[in-house]
Amino acid sequence: MKILLTALLTIGVLTLSGIAQTNEWTADYVTYDDAINGTGDQTTSAAVVGPDRFVAIVCQTPTSPLLDNIFDPPGNYLVGYWDADSGIGRVPSPINGSQTIPLYNTDGQFTDWASGLDLIQLKGAYTIASGPDNLVYVANNDADHNILVFELSETGVAATDFRMETGAQDIFAIEVDDSGYVYVANYKGDVLLNDEVKVYAGVNAPGTTWGTFGGHNDAPVATIDLPEGTYYGLTVSGDGTSVYVSSHDDRSILKYVGDPVNGYTADATWSLTLSPDDTVSNGGSGTPSYLGLAYLDDPGKLYAAVDTVFGSSNFGGYPYGRIYQINPGNGITEDTIDVAEWNFAITGAYNNRSGEGRAGGYTSLIDLDVEETEPALYSTSYYGWTVEKWTFDGTLVSIEPIDAAIPGSFELSQNYPNPFNPRTTIEFEIQQSVHVSLSVYNLLGQKVVTLLDEQMAAGSYRAVFEAGKLPSGVYIYEIQAGDFKAAKRMNLVK
What we know:
Strand content: over 45%
CATH class of the largest domain: Mainly Beta
Radius of gyration: 23 Å
Strand order of the largest sheet: 18-21-22-23-24
Distance between the termini: 32 Å
């Protein structure tokens, strides 16, 4: 079941109609691709430490063929942003041994991590993750495949004393949970290995050697055995109980449950694979798959970048590129941010660099990160050389089945809790397959949000409604399912 909240989106005097884009996620800004505020080259990932404060990582295209030479780029560096917008916010970063701003479209620029006489240069580092205390963690592919830790401040990006060697295997995706545990995934799954995901105790955990001279060699506290394949994305719930890994080869997302202390096992109830119909159209080429992943803890959403990995530097996958919002419990895709169609609506083309700071122009998603407080998503455009901020101004809703048994009648239950703040649950029963709409109105009869507008199979369902953006008051929620229509009151008290 795919829930799309669609509407007309108006920006200035331009009305964008018919795009596959929700009326609640919009591009707040996109960093300009220029020497003043741009990242300067192919941008693969961004780690967000707070609203409009993030570090992007640039990993330039290696010599052809790219995928045979992925970890030997001609340039690999960090770019920090503090209180950013499309044209402001870039701060100095450690590049080629100096704290400086990167030169635009220039090979040979590398960020150095240095602590005393200890020096490691970025090499084939594609993804970056944020952790507590404004720290950012880079999955690097030097000889020891270190996790390198930097700190972002308003004066720039700086190396810390923390790093951790992960072994002999190439690494790609990385994540940090709320307790500081660090998760890193191998680029390749191998039948001869059983530790393709490694979990390390945090930089400030007792007994660790993240910042110890002669150390940096802790054993992982937990590992996960991945199937054979290629892995571009990794994320974890804030409490560390659910780990998600994107498998490029079979276009799926894997889920593991447990915790860093007791270990992880595959979730036998989870199954999520892209449909064969999920392909590139409009003259593009390539096969899209799940790539970077991010997790929003409140109210619990999994976000996946879906694109043709590294696409084509010409037209290629530019007509395709989207972010899926997924229910992290049952794998239902609930919503879509269609980045490619957003770019087309703003610029009039799939490969146009205009857009006045609202469109990256060359859709080529690899990774994304989430900022919890707004909430906001930060994605990157590899060939657009940008970081894109998507903000949400509506209400987050999840719909999940309770029971597949066919009910004896149609029914709408009273929400619970009631009164509520800011989240409540609405349950309903559908006696037969029918088109269902579930909407919320204020007492003036004005619709404030559509929770569901979809053909539904017979069964019992639960809608979890997040109303944090709405003011206190009495609201009416109404269901229309074929000839059945019912409404009830609910009270939001803040």
